[in-house]
Each structure stands twice: as structure tokens, then as C-alpha cells.
Amino acid sequence: MNTHRKPANRFGFSVLLCYLKNIGMIPDKKSLLSDFLLKHIASRLNLSNELWKDCASGRDTTRREHLIELYHYLGLKKFTKQIQNDCISYLIPLTKRTDKGILLAQELLKYMQRNCVIIPTIDVLERTCSNAMAAGDKIVFSELNAQLISEHKVNLDSLLIASNNHLSRLSWILQPPGKINGKNVLQHIERLNTIVAIDLPVGIGRLVHQNRLLKLAREGRNMSSRDLTKFSSSRPIRYSNMCD
């Protein structure tokens, strides 16, 4: 730090050092930094905290030189495409258990801090979590559909058929049981028998995490039979939402 003679350079270098060492991110020139932090750094250096304005409006070359020096000193790595792919691979096991974006983001930040990776901008973090979630979805769908043979798919597809303005079998199965009386009990038993007749593989629901099954169930309830028929039979999502 003492190699930087100008007060503004010393102050700016110190601010970058604090952020990179303790938070792992680079403050943008337009960022509103903590007054407490600026005053604390200024008091330690016997400088004015107003110098940050000079730093923010200073040369980009000076800022880059400071960052290169700090990267080397702290052993930090830039967030590259390869590191992003590593982050996605790391998050995939978690995406198979949860669909909560905030949990993925928290785990991603911990991973980058452990591996001395500089935290990128929020849009890059969001895109990384989104890609990991999409990869997790694909794996979950594939794991569920791998257990289905052609007969299972034919039975599931038959539930989507509706004719003469009648409900599809799937919509009929999802209807509430109604009041307890003889007619409704018999209809409910018939619905259960229809589900049993599909003859899904035993234990198929245990292949993926319970949280993921609940998510698929929520998505399935929000889709009509017509919506599901829009998915090609070759797409795993069609049967994954129906299996739950």
C-alpha cells in the first residue's frame, strides 16, 4: 500500500482491498459504499473519506493496475466461463433437491468464496443459478422417465384424451371427492382404480427428492390436459408432471 504515493490512490487501493478480502467482490464506481467503512479506512490512513470521489472519477488504468496487484496479493481468480461451468456442476446436486433460487445463490456465493473466486455482477449470478436449475430439471425429468416403458406412456397419454365436450380422464381423476355419500365414494374408488391400472413402476416417486416431486405436482395442477398434450411425447416434462 505504501508504494502508492498519492492520497487518492492509497485510499482507493485500501477500499478495493477491504472489499475483495472480506466480501469477494469489486465495488463499482457508481456503487454507494458504506460511509462507516469509508470513514474507518480514512481514519486508519489519516486521510479524508471524501477521497473516494476522486478515486471513482480517476483513470481506469490506475484502477486496473490496483486490481491486478490485489488479485496477485490475495490469490483471487476472475470469474471465467470455465469457473461458471464448474459452479453449475457444483450446484446441480442441490437443484435436484430444491427449486429455491435464494438457496442456490447462497450456496454459489459460499462456493466462490471457498475457491477464492471474485464475485461477479448480480445478473451473472442469476444466469449461473438459472442454468444450474435448468440442468437439474433435465436430470430430474430424465430420472423419472427412464423408469417408464412404452406401455406406461400409452396409459398416461390415454388420460389426456377428451371427447364430446367431456372432461379428460386426467381432469376427472383430479376432481375433489365431494361430500361423503355412496355415489361419491364409488366414483372415488373408480378414480383410484384408474390410477392403479396405469401400473407405474413401484417406488418411482422415491427416485427424486420430495421437494422436487412437490414442485412437479404444483406445475401439473396448473396445467390442463390440453396444455400437456402440447408437449411432444419425446419430452420428459410431459410424463414427469403426470407421474406426480
Keywords:
244 residues, 3 domains, 64% helix
Any overview of this molecule?
With 244 residues, the protein is mostly helical. It has helices at residues 7-22, 35-45, 51-56, 60-74, 81-95, 101-114, 122-145, 150-158, 169-173, 182-198, 210-221, 225-229, 236-243. The protein has 13 helices and no strands. The termini are far apart. It folds into 3 domains: 7-74, no CATH class; 81-136; 147-243, no CATH class.
Short recap of the structure:
It is built from 13 helices and no strands.
User: Which oligomerization state do the chains in this entry correspond to?
Assistant: single chain
On the 0-100 scale, what is the average pLDDT?
81
Report the strand count.
0
How many domains? The number is 3
Q: Ranges with pLDDT <50 over ≥5 residues?
A: none
Strand content: under 5%
Q: Specify the structural class.
A: mainly alpha
What's the helical proportion of residues? 55-70%
